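Collaborator request, handled under Task 6.
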Amino acid sequence: MRVYALIALPALVGCAELRTSYAPPSGQPMAVFDKTVLRTGTQQVATGHDEVRDAQGNIVATNTHYENQQISWTEREWYPLQGGGRVDDESFYRITGDKQAADKYEAYHQSGMSRNTAGFFIMGIGLAVFGGGLGMYMGDAPKTNPTTGMSGDRSALSTVGYVGMTAGLITAVVGTIMIFGGKHAAHAEDARLFDEPERMKADAARYNEQLAMGGPATPVPAAGPLVATPGANIVIAPISLTLAKDKVKRIELKRDGTISADGKNIGTISNASIKDMKGETVFTVLADGSLQGDDLPNANMKIVGDELVRGDKHVTVADDGTIVIVGKGAVETVGKIDKGGRQRRTAVLMLAAVAALQRQ
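Structure tokens returned to the collaborator:
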């Protein structure tokens, strides 16, 4: 009966369904609850040993002495919020438009579907082997001698059958574990694939900045392949920067997307692309934040959260609007946001835009 239950249970409740529904964007700000709590407790610590010896001096026992010791540790709890209400991690990343994170969750769900399907095949093979072993074992039942009334011994066929039943049952159990494990992964709503609260905070800040400017991020679709295509979120709103050490002293982004340097129009932002005044594309911001173009001062430039990454250096904006380059233990101030101080992501992108436009 237990074997039949093993066959029937996965068939009835083990089929996986891919997760396709998520918490919808409500238009409310995103936030991250982040709290670290100090915990205390006791644990037993070995404080010494003594030996018990017999009359000849041989050690016959060893006693270890323990004492309770006070210890402390910290526990950190963090999770995303939308408008004060908790949402799951995956829904947060999709709402805020973090395609890289959503892509990893999509792969996680798809992997669960594949594992679920493979589990049914493995379970089937295991049950077939179990059935074959059972047939051999039953077919080799000892025969009774009618004269003596005694039963004979089993042959090697019984041993093979017993091994087959054991191996088949183990294989079927492994398949069953894969079925249910894959089912959970395919539809999991509580998976945490990124242990990075700072990443989540950066996503929330960018999303809230775009909400404030009337242009929230486009949520990542609930299903389908995620590819790096032009269309990363760029807030086009008035912003001006004063630079400290560059030939250009002042950069402005106008409401219509025009970029000016020291009062001269040098380019535009259009459909996630930076173009010169002739309308030719200088570089494009891909959906994963990477900058793609031949005129970039560094081939490996990428927008990560509110920072511009240039090789081993990060261009970031402090709370007071100061723009700094951090790298190799040094911090260099390069300028400051005069107007539009909440648009940190747009500010660092403007630096890349002007640098690329100047190289033409």
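The cover message to the collaborator said: "Residues 199 and 305 are 7 Å apart (CA to CA). Confidence is low (pLDDT under 50) at residues 223-233. Please let us know whether this matches your experimental observations."
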